[in-house]
């Protein structure tokens, strides 16, 4: 039996890590997809883009782009058995330029991990602050003044203890989880945190539904504006939300799928992950807008007149203001910020596993060495950049460029290179159907190869033009150039340089299973099937 068929790595004495089973994989994949964006991005995006009518383009985007690209990531990772650089190098027949695509995704994950950890540290601080409502009567002033101590655009080494301490705690937890591995680390965290997250957030939503003004909040969210469906920007917003929410196109699902056994169903669990993620987003929308309805009721205004309906403002300014005014506010605050911590942490470990796995495979390192090395380097950079008085501004700009340019560019490159340049669509479709119960047709290749790059390419060009012409949040051009465009330059340069390093061991001694094209010797095909099933 070959290493490829029994699921081992290129080194015979080092079997590839595996999820313990399908349930473990599904929980981990859902844990990765359900993150901060589900709670603080979806409700506001839906409200601003047609309310209840937004669910139509949202579902269309999920079915025509989100799920197809999710399946693409699964197929690449599962068939070619590696982290993003390994898998893309193998699908490209050992070509360095395809390995560069993998490293492009890894470096996006690396950058996101640096600042995403800081947001979790904030949520952890606010979890503690909830017990005594420490933000007082001015949550906005408390966040930017007393807590983050926000300074002018630039680079400072003036550390903020209230951010530094929880940030170090989060990084230590991340390193421990990554060092424990796929089954004992990532999977166990998700098995514990994901049910806790669902229970905590469901309690929060139920409580919110009984607040004064909750009905008005829900009406504001779900009242359909059918005219909005004629606005192309609404459809782009739907594709954008689905795309960023599912953890696709930057190495996570490629890496996660590579840890599944050879004979593992891919498409049915993929549907479970996609619809579970969307269900949580809708649940978050109900909870958030029921709560916003209460705040509007207290202030005697309409929900639309409130500030801070998305992002950092919603979570760290608007919600603390609500908690201060509602009965049993501290309990509500603990549930909300506890949910943010759990949702963020399960996503964070998936992001950093992309980096750790790639380093481990490229340089022949042990799991623990790669986890500690990646964790320590990331932690140092994260502390230097985001635990200071200029951390909030750097975080906001880096997030804008890494997400709206980095990830979208990665998706366009992935779909075009895999489907059109390498012509691997039929092979990946065959692979999905060979191991899965839910079969995909030729339309899947068209959705991935035509619709996705067209829509995402339009999004990418539109965003680049907007950032160049209009800038971002009124920040100085030099700052956007260094932090924003500098982030993209760093990702591109790293993606070019890293493939030049020698592999230890080489990933090229590899044969994908099951054989493609399937037409071949019956005996060989039967033997491969038996060996693959035994893994």
Outline the secondary-structure elements:
Elements lengths: L2 H4 L15 H12 L2 H5 L1 H7 L6 H26 L3 H8 L4 H34 L9 H9 L13 H20 L1 H28 L4 H9 L9 H14 L6 H7 L8 H33 L11 H15 L3 H35 L3 H20 L4 H31 L3 H11 L6 H29 L6 H21 L24 H13 L1
Helix pairs in contact: 2-10, 2-13, 2-14, 2-16, 4-14, 5-6, 5-12, 5-13, 5-14, 5-19, 5-20, 6-7, 7-9, 7-16, 7-17, 7-18, 7-21, 9-10, 9-16, 9-17, 10-14, 10-16, 11-14, 14-15, 15-16, 16-17, 18-20, 18-21
| Anisotropy-based shape | globular
Give helix and strand order, one letter per element, not per position.
HHHHHHHHHHHHHHHHHHHHHH
Total DSSP helices: 22
Q: Give me the count of strands.
A: 0
Largest sheet: none
Residue-averaged pLDDT, rounded? 93
Q: Can you give the helix content as a percent range?
A: over 70%
Structural class: mainly alpha
Distance between the termini: 10 Å
Roughly what fraction of the amino acids lie in strands? under 5%
C-alpha Rg (nearest Å)? 23 Å
Uncertain segments = 1-13, 521-535
Structure, explained:
This protein has 535 residues and is mostly helical. The radius of gyration is 23 Å and the shape is globular. Helices cover 73% and strands 0% of the residues. The longest helix is centred in the middle third of the chain and has 35 residues, at 329-363. It comes from Microbacterium terregens. Residues 514-535 are annotated as: Disordered. It is a multi-pass membrane protein.
């Amino acid at each position: 039996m070959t290493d490829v068929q029994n699921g081992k790595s290129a080194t015979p004495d080092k079997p590839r890590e595996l999820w313990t089973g399908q349930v473990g994989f599904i929980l981990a994949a859902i844990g990765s997809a359900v993150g901060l964006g589900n709670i603080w991005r979806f409700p506001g995006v839906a409200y601003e883009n047609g309310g209840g009518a937004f669910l139509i383009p949202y579902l269309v985007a999920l079915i025509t782009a989100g799920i197809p690209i999710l399946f693409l990531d699964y197929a690449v990772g599962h068939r070619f058995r590696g982290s993003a650089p390994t898998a893309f190098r193998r699908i490209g027949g050992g070509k360095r330029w395809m390995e560069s695509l993998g490293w492009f995704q890894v470096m996006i994950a690396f950058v996101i991990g640096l600042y995403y950890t800081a947001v979790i540290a904030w949520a952890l601080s606010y979890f503690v602050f909830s017990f005594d409502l420490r933000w007082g009567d001015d949550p906005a002033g408390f966040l930017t003044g007393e807590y983050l101590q926000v300074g002018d655009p630039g680079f400072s080494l003036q550390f903020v203890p209230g951010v530094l301490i929880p940030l170090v705690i989060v990084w230590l937890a991340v390193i421990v989880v990554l060092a424990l591995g796929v089954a004992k680390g990532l999977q166990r965290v998700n098995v514990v945190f994901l049910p806790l997250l669902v229970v905590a957030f469901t309690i929060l939503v139920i409580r919110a539904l009984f607040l004064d003004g909750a009905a008005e909040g829900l009406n504001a969210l779900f009242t359909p504006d059918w005219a909005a469906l004629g606005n192309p920007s609404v459809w782009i917003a739907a594709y954008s939300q689905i795309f960023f929410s599912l953890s696709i196109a930057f190495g996570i699902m490629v890496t996660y799928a590579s840890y599944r056994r050879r004979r593992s169903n891919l498409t049915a669990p993929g549907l479970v992950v996609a619809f579970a993620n969307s269900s949580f987003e809708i649940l978050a929308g109900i909870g958030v807008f029921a709560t916003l309805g209460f705040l509007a009721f207290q202030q005697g205004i309409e929900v639309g007149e409130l500030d801070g309906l998305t992002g950092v403002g919603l979570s760290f300014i608007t919600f603390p203001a609500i908690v201060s005014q509602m009965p049993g506010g501290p309990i509500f605050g603990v549930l909300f910020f506890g949910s943010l911590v759990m949702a963020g942490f399960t996503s964070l470990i998936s992001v950093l596993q992309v980096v750790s796995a790639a380093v481990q495979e490229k340089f022949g390192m042990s799991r623990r060495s790669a986890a500690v090395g990646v964790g320590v380097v990331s932690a140092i950079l994260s502390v230097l950049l985001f635990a200071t008085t200029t951390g909030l501004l750097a975080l906001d700009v880096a997030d804008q460029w890494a997400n709206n340019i980095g990830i979208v560019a990665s998706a366009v490159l992935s779909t075009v290179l895999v489907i059109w340049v390498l012509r691997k669509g039929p092979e990946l479709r065959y692979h999905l159907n060979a191991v899965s119960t839910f079969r995909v047709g030729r339309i899947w290749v068209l959705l991935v190869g035509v619709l996705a790059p067209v829509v995402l390419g339009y999004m990418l060009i539109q965003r680049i033009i907007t950032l160049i012409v209009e800038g971002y949040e009124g920040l100085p051009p030099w700052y956007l150039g260094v932090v924003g465009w500098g982030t993209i330059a760093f990702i591109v340069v790293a993606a070019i340089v890293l493939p030049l390093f020698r592999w230890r061991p080489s990933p090229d001694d590899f044969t994908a299973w099951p054989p493609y094209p399937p037409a071949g010797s019956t005996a060989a095909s039967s033997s491969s099937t038996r060996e693959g099933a035994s893994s």
